[in-house]
Amino acid sequence: MKRLLVFLGVLFLLAGCGYTTRSVIKDQYSSIYVAPFVNAVDMTDEAFSANKYRVYRPGIETDVSKAVVNRFLIDGNLKPVTPSLADLSLKGEVVEFRKDALRYDDNDEVTEYRVNIVVNLTLMDSKENRKLWQENNFTGDTTYFASGSQAKSEAEALNDAISDLARRIVERTVEQW
Question: Which among 33, 72, 105, 113 is least surrounded, fewest beta carbons within 10 Å?
Answer without folding.
Answer: 105
